[in-house]
Design brief:
This protein has 636 residues and is an alpha/beta fold. Helix 5 crosses helix 7, helix 16 packs across helix 17 and helix 20 runs antiparallel to helix 22. It has 26 helices and 14 strands. The strands form 3 sheets. A 6-stranded parallel beta sheet has the order 3-2-4-5-1-6, sandwiched between helices. It has a 6-stranded parallel beta sheet with strand order 7-12-11-8-10-9. Strands 13-14 form a two-stranded antiparallel ribbon. Strand 2, helix 3 and strand 3 form a beta-alpha-beta unit. The longest helix has 24 residues. The radius of gyration is 28 Å and the shape is globular. The protein starts with a helix and ends with a helix.
Length: 636
């Protein structure tokens, strides 16, 4: 890769703050490693005084390996291995370890963390059906409160009633402290407290790390930034690299405005733009640039490439998802026959559940694939498990386990105490409630419903459970308690109904479910060890990767941008996510959208219009707020 003038200036930058805006495929890792080398070679900086921070262990390891290789090739003999490469958590834990003598035993494992939260939920007698989602949401919210340092009384939970969350949070924090345990967020929080309260310790670390380089700066959160600013003072030899257009981790606390405000925080900052994309064709770079230009909260920049024009982007509509996936399957097979390795093709979705039916199709046609995310098994979703339990009871199963799954969905007010045996008998239930006429009516209706179900097809049964038995009414109550969108739960019902079509008996459908579950588990086991086949990924998980051919699926309103994006800032993040997806492609980019899903009409995404990709529709972005233009020198 030939160096351009912006890279040259960044590499040779010596002291003071610098912000390097690095577009997709612009060679930022090469620039960073060469800058560290230049600090040693040109400016005789002591390698032990240099800190390079990034977000993941893999990124830190890769950068370290590339830097050391560079030094070996250049014949540098001084002790370049003393340069520190690490993650935020790794570096901050190191600071705490020196101060408090912590060991690995003080770090709470993910497993223990979840066990602790389960115990607290159990103690407070909170009943949740979707345990996995609930605990993931809880952990995310605990992180948000800690990282943003939000007073607990001012935090409103997205996961459950506010008083329930506040009580769980307080109990969790107290239990951790009493056990002298830290989670990942505590490493940041305690490090911040230590450095603000102990000026002597702060001064020691400032002397140790006189040059700090931060990669993927657009993903930084407020707490990480505050600590980095403290460590960099007073010299402020802070070199940050990132792309505000690729800030896509708001759910982890990343705030693109931190990068946008960097020139205000450091008025003497020198800014450079790596504007040359070495990865993609001109066609891909131009269209992606047109889309991202619609964001107002960004540094104005024009990304270009010296690569060939390349093939036009393919934009194609389909009647429904099945049609879309069959066409995609044909594209993959054809491209492979024409010499494109499966590994050079990526199929990208907005959410990890988007790929559910594609995975089934690829298994059926024996097309190898690898997943960047765990595709959630529809049939292991708690709603699906409820429906399967109903069907098993209809087939004659009377085990207490299956009965407990559905006896109060909808609520029939049957008590667990009424189920005394491992096998449940309706007669025994009637004896238990013999003095309550209204309960006997409910028990009779339950048994009658099961008798009706047993002669239905799986598709008929799904619909009867939803509407005839009243399961949808139960979901409304549950969604209110958990602050869930009812339409998201209904979507699971629609997918279940779609899956059940075409099977005549419960037995046939159950065989399909077992086979699919087995194959999915097998795929999950091999996905880490074997990097073979078409890459299936969410947009979030594919950041930093590149492929010859990229397929963006379901480019529809409500999917891209996602239906939960309600504010202007949410929408801008969705556009950045779409931009990340587009710029993964080197040579060919396919954008597919569908006209209907679950018998509802869908619209193509506004991003297609913004990129001028829908015939007859061309729009110009509103004048961007060229934020901090006076600081950046990027007015082009």
């Amino acid at each position: 890769m030939k160096k351009n003038s912006a890279q040259e200036k960044a590499i040779l930058h010596n002291q003071g703050p610098m912000m390097l805006l690095a577009g997709p495929g612009s060679g930022k890792t090469t620039t960073m490693t060469k800058r560290v080398k230049a600090l040693l070679e040109h400016y005789q900086v002591n390698p032990a005084r240099i800190l390079v921070v990034t977000f993941t262990k893999a990124a830190a390891r890769e950068m370290k390996e590339r830097f050391e290789k560079l030094c070996q090739e250049s014949g540098i003999t001084q002790n370049y291995k003393q340069v520190t490469f690490g993650t935020f958590h790794g570096v901050f834990y190191g600071i705490l370890r020196h101060a408090y003598g912590l060991t690995g035993k003080n770090i709470i494992s993910e497993e223990r963390r979840y066990d602790m939260l389960r115990e607290l939920v159990y103690r407070q007698k909170i009943e949740v059906e979707d345990e996995k989602e609930f605990f993931e949401g809880l952990v995310q919210e605990i992180s948000e409160v800690k990282n943003s340092r939000i007073p607990l009384e001012h935090y409103y939970s997205k996961n459950c009633p506010d008083e329930v969350f506040r009580s769980l949070y307080t109990s969790y924090v107290t239990t951790c402290r009493q056990s002298r345990l830290l989670d990942f967020d505590d490493m940041l929080l305690y490090c911040y407290d230590l450095l603000t309260q102990r000026q002597d310790i702060l001064a020691g670390w400032q002397k140790k790390f006189q040059y700090i380089l931060v990669d993927e700066f657009q993903d930084i959160n407020k707490l990480q930034y505050d600590i980095v600013k403290m460590l960099a003072a007073p010299e402020n030899n802070l070199f940050i690299v990132g792309d505000d257009d690729q800030s896509i981790y708001a759910f982890r606390g990343a705030k693109p405005e931190i990068m946008m405000n960097f020139p205000k925080d450091f008025p003497s900052v020198q800014t450079e733009l790596l504007s040359v994309n070495y990865r993609s064709t001109k066609e891909i770079v131009d269209v992606a640039g047109r889309v991202i230009a619609w964001n107002k909260g960004r540094f104005q920049k024009k990304i270009q490439t010296e690569n060939e024009q390349g093939k036009p982007l393919v934009v194609k509509s389909f009647q429904n998802g099945k049609e879309e996936e069959l066409y995609l399957k044909d594209c993959l097979v054809k491209a492979h026959e024409q010499g494109c390795p499966y590994e050079e093709m990526a199929v990208l979705y907005r959410t990890n559940s988007g790929a559910r039916f594609l995975v089934e199709l690829l298994m059926e046609y024996q097309i190898p694939f690898q997943m960047r995310d765990v595709v959630p098994n529809l049939y292991e979703h708690w709603i699906a498990r409820n429906f399967i339990s109903y069907m098993k009871l209809a087939m004659g199963d009377r085990s207490r386990k299956e009965f407990l799954q559905v006896m109060n969905r909808p609520n029939r007010y049957i008590s667990r105490d009424a189920l005394e045996e491992s096998q449940v008998s309706f007669e025994a239930l009637r004896w238990h409630y013999e003095d309550k006429e209204w309960m006997l009516d409910r028990i009779d209706k339950f048994e009658e419903d099961l008798n009706l179900l047993k002669n239905m097809t799986p598709y008929g049964a799904v619909n009867y459970i939803r509407h005839g038995i009243g399961y949808e009414e139960y979901l409304k109550t549950y969604a209110m308690f958990r602050k869930l969108k009812l339409e998201d739960l209904y979507e699971v019902l629609e997918e279940l109904a779609d899956s059940a079509k075409g099977y005549q008996t419960f037995g046939e459908w159950f065989i399909h479910i077992e086979e699919y579950t087995r194959k999915l588990k097998e795929q999950a086991r091999t996905r880490i060890s074997e990097k073979k086949g078409v890459v299936i990924s969410t947009l979030h998980s594919v950041k930093g990767l590149e492929f010859d051919k990229v397929f963006l699926m379901d480019v529809n309103e409500g999917v891209m941008p996602y239906k939960k994006a309600l504010t202007e800032s949410d929408l801008e993040e969705e556009r950045r996510l779409f931009y990340v997806g587009m710029t993964r492609a080197r040579k060919e980019l396919y954008l597919f959208y569908v006209k209907e899903c679950h018998e509802k009409q869908l619209e193509p995404s506004r991003f297609l219009t913004e990129g001028g990709l829908l015939k007859g529709e061309k729009n110009e972005p509103a004048k961007n707020q060229n934020l901090h233009r006076e600081h950046t020198g990027l007015d082009q």
